[in-house]
Amino acid sequence: MRLPDFEGWAIFAKVAECGSFARAADEVQLSRPTVSKAVSRLEQTLGVALFNRTSRQLSLTEEGRALLGHASRMLGAAQSAETEAMEGTARLSGPIRLAAPMCFGVHHVAPLLPAFLRQYPGIDILADFSDTAVDLVADGFDLALRIASLADSSLRARKLCPVRLLLVAAPFWLAEVGRPQHPRDLVGRKGFVYTNTAAPGTLRFQHGQTGEDFVLSQAARMRSNNAEAFLPVLREGLGYGLFPAFMVHSALMAGEVEVILPDWQVASIALYLVTPPSPLRSARVNVFMNYLTDRFLAPTWL
After folding, report:
1. pLDDT in tens, 128-159
2. Cα(207)–Cα(211) distance, rounded to whole angstroms?
3. Domain harbouring 110, CATH code
4. Are 113 and 157 a contacting pair, CB within 8 Å?
């Protein structure tokens, strides 16, 4: 379906309001030929003359008078929409749709929201905390926090901070099975397998000094699509697992778990702020992005 000639209708309304092509051209900041051509194009589309033109006078035809109300309403609606959008930007009001991983969202994003919402009472937050990756564009999100080694995409990404992945176990487990010196010592030992990855249970290690690589295929004592579900059994010494530092920081500080194989690392990941491809964002989203960026410059769990 062909769209209406919105420009032609708007210029027709302006010419009728100003009573002159020249004054209308000055009003809308277009050249006089552009204004004249827009009206002529609309007349050709409609199959009627909108104005009676003479060298000295311009007046509406009967058809022009009948259609002027429609044109004025279209122009008024567009002007109202622009005014509303600009006022909303100035007021920093309206909703922000945010997506974040479940555990990180609940424990590290949600606590930051009260201060932001108090500072900007006109802004509302619609938070979706889930370990399922959302489609920002298709699902209508303004931004997302992602913890990953980010793949190339059309999305725009801002790195907030690195996220260390730590191999940990409880002291009870280490006392029972012994402290591993090499990833191969974990072969056959049952641990916790996070299933929301491309290759669940496959851990790729590299020694920090020698560069030696080793791929460990975990035997699973427990599998889950939510890594936080492993924490109770981890603390009870029922296995080992690879966790982001923010998830086990408090347990490490309390001595409930210990880092094992500290000389071996897995591929680095980071916390990213991801937005749709368009560089145009509302002022409220920009303010929220800057707020989150400042809060994650130096998190306690780094």
Report:
1. 999 888 888 888 899 999 998 776 566 789 99
2. 5
3. 3.40.190.10
4. no
